[in-house]
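Thread title: Can someone regenerate the structure for this chain?

I was given the following input by a collaborator and told the matching structure tokens would be attached. They weren't. Posting the sequence so someone can regenerate them.
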Amino acid sequence: MDNAKIKNILILVIGGTGNEPEALRQSLEYFGYFVAIKYIGRPNDLTSVLKGDLPFDADCIILSCHGEDGEIIMPVLGEEVYEPDEPKGNITASDIDKYLKLKDKLILNLGCTTGEKDLAKAFSKKNTYIASDDYIEGSAALYFAVSLFYEMSKGTDLDKAYKTSKETDSETKLFKIFR
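Best answer:
Regenerated them for you:
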């Protein structure tokens, strides 16, 4: 992926991630990126984005979320609130396989364990995917993202920016890149 193409970033907020999305947006806009935030309230909000229904032509999608056991933790809705055929429970690799139509995007997932093999494989079929393969401290995930985009804003290629950003400490080393 040519990071010179990365100009427009969409942050998807899934669940309660504190001020992480706002901190990311402020930092990345300061680096010169156009950044928008979309709050995901239900599984179909996420699946529509995965299918390509984007509010603008985003080059990069950042998932500000929580993860567990290689799944994206989704808010629980009342049974009567789910729409027909809407995924229930956490988003799994099979859900990503089913819904992901995006291609040639950089997808950065800040949720714990979202870099585990099956989920990473599903996201990286047609995209570059970066995620932690274990339980990462939240501030380290934020730092990694800010560092990655800072490096790329200076013209550093994605691979070098990734290597620089992950070498900070034992927490940032948990991020892996998948293609």
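Strands lie at 8-14, 34-40, 60-64, 67-68, 71-72, 106-109, 128-132, 175-178.
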